[in-house]
Structure formats: C-alpha cells, structure tokens
Specification:
Keywords: ATP-binding, Nodulation, Nucleotide-binding, Transport. Belongs to the ABC transporter superfamily. This protein has two domains: about 170 residues, P-loop containing nucleotide triphosphate hydrolases (Rossmann fold), CATH 3.40.50; about 70 residues, no CATH class. The chain is about 40% helix and about 25% strand. The chain has nine helices and ten strands. The strands form two sheets. The protein has a six-stranded mixed β-sheet, with helices on both faces. Helix 3 crosses helix 4, helix 3 runs parallel beside helix 5 and helix 8 crosses helix 9. It is globular and about 50 Å long. The structure holds adenosine-5'-triphosphate (ATP). The site of adenosine-5'-triphosphate (ATP) has 13 residues, from strand 2 and helix 1.
Length: about 240
C-alpha cells in the first residue's frame, strides 16, 4: 500500500505538488490521471525517494520514505524507462544486477532472476545483449527489473509511452496479473483508454492537487457523463494536455 499525505513540492517557481493526499491499495490498480504538468511524475519520484518534498509524507507499506528510504525501496519496484536499458548487458545480467542493488545476496538474487525470467517469458532472449531489442523485449526486461525483488508495490510512470499495440496489451496483462497476486500497482497516465480499461481507482490530479478520486464508473456518475474522458474534462475544466 502506498500512502501520500499532504505532499507539497515547489520546483523553481512552480508549485508542482500542492497538499496532495491519496492512497493506493493492495490488490488494486490505481491510476494517477492528469493533464501535462499536473505533477504526476513529481509525485511518483517523491514516492520513490528521488525527490524530497517540502512538506508532507509518503509511505510504502507504512514505512516512511523520508525516514527509512532503503526499507521503503525494498517494498517498491520502479518501472524505468525501457529505452534506457544498459545495452551491453543481457537481461539476465541486468535483472540480477538490480536484484543485488535492492539488497539481495548473490544466491537469492540469482534464483529470483531465474524466476522472473521464466515468469515473464524472457527465456529465449535472457542471454542476448539488450542492444537491438524490440520495444516489447525492452519493456519486459524493464518490468522484470522492477519486480525481481518481489516488492509488494510497483510504480510506473506512463508505462505505455512509445509502446506498440502488442507491447501495450502485454503490459496490461502483466499489470492485471500483478494485481491479482495482491500487489499494489500505481501508474501515471494521461491516456484515457488505458486508465478506463485498467484502473480500479483513479486519482484525478491537476495543478499538484487531487481533484477527484473514484472508480472510472464512479467518476462518470459523479459528473453525469458517459465516458471517463468527458468526466475528466468536467472535473478539471479543460481538455488541454490529455490524450484519448
Ligand atoms: N526539473 C524541473 N524544473 C522545472 N520545472 C519542473 C521540473 N520538474 C517538474 N517541473 C514542473 O513541475 C510541474 C509538474 O511536472 P510533472 O513532470 O510532475 O507533471 P506531469 O503530470 O508528470 O506531466 P506530464 O504528463 O507532462 O509528464 C510542471 O509545471 C513542470 O514544468
């Protein structure tokens, strides 16, 4: 479970987060939905401990990220930009490297790497260098790195950006499987279809604040609209910076 409470963060002159509070539950996919510049990335970077908030707290499984960042990270997987893989490493080397970075000893890291390679059907490419990989192969390698240490929580920043239809569908299936295993999945997006198809709960954000929280259906009911896109526009008052 991920909880942020009263998070505020000013970057330069911009109030990127403005008293932001919400939680993302285990066994659910939670979407952070907001237009460009709403503060989604800033929020996720703060939860991962990459940014320090000016005020407020973020907790991962009740561990305060500011007080025990290493403990919090053990319970948290971050899906990185799949285009930034280390090209010279094979997926097996890459995934194992991150398993050890997350604090696992050599033997368990090797066993966990073998397991996740099997789980994500990476066996065929596990020992090839990442250079030249397709989008889907990159995505699966990046995701394997995020979940190799079996964190109970996974955060993803616009995970389908740049992916083709097949890779997007594959990613969706994997996220649904993680949810069914009881993980807390939190991802950011401004793609309506993706959020409507995947999320149990949506946190609608604008200008660093929560505007509304609910299932896609609840948000439609609350605004009297038929689609999440129309509900979203009604909630934030503009269609600038969103994608259908
Ligand atoms: N390093 C930075 N320097 C200056 N301003 C920043 C920086 N990082 C974020 N901001 C500003 O903070 C606000 C929130 O940015 P953030 O990237 O969190 O939004 P976002 O919701 O992820 O947007 P997008 O959907 O476009 O990725 C924006 O106004 C952005 O310009």
């Amino acid at each position: 479970m991920i909880t942020v409470a009263n998070l505020s963060k000013k970057i330069g002159e911009v109030q990127a987060l403005n008293d932001l509070s919400f939680s993302a539950e285990n066994g659910q996919i939670t979407g952070l939905l907001g237009p460009n510049g709403a503060g989604k990335t800033t929020c996720l970077r703060t939860v991962f401990g990459l940014l320090k908030p000016d005020s407020g707290t973020s907790c991962v499984d009740d561990i305060d990220v500011a007080i025990d960042p290493i403990g919090a990270k053990k319970q948290l997987g971050l899906f990185p930009d799949p285009f930034g893989l280390y090209e010279r490493l094979t997926p097996r080397e890459y995934i194992r490297y991150f398993a050890e970075l997350s604090g696992m000893a050599r033997k368990p890291a090797k066993a966990a790497t073998d397991k996740v390679i099997e789980q994500l059907n990476l066996t065929d490419i596990a020992d090839r260098r990442c250079k030249g990989f397709s989008q889907g192969q990159r995505m699966k390698t990046a995701l394997a790195q995020a979940i190799v240490h079996q964190p109970s929580n996974i955060i993803l920043d616009e995970p389908t950006r740049g992916l083709d239809v097949m890779s997007t569908r594959l990613l969706r299936d994997i996220l649904i499987a993680l949810k069914q295993q009881g993980h807390c999945v939190l991802f950011s997006s401004h793609v309506m279809q993706e959020v409507a198809a995947l999320c149990d709960r949506v946190i609608v954000m604008a200008q660093g604040k929560v505007v509304a929280i609910g299932s896609p259906q609840q948000l439609c009911e609350q605004t009297g609209k038929d689609s999440l896109e129309d509900a979203f526009i009604a909630l934030i008052g503009t269609d600038e910076g969103i994608a259908a």
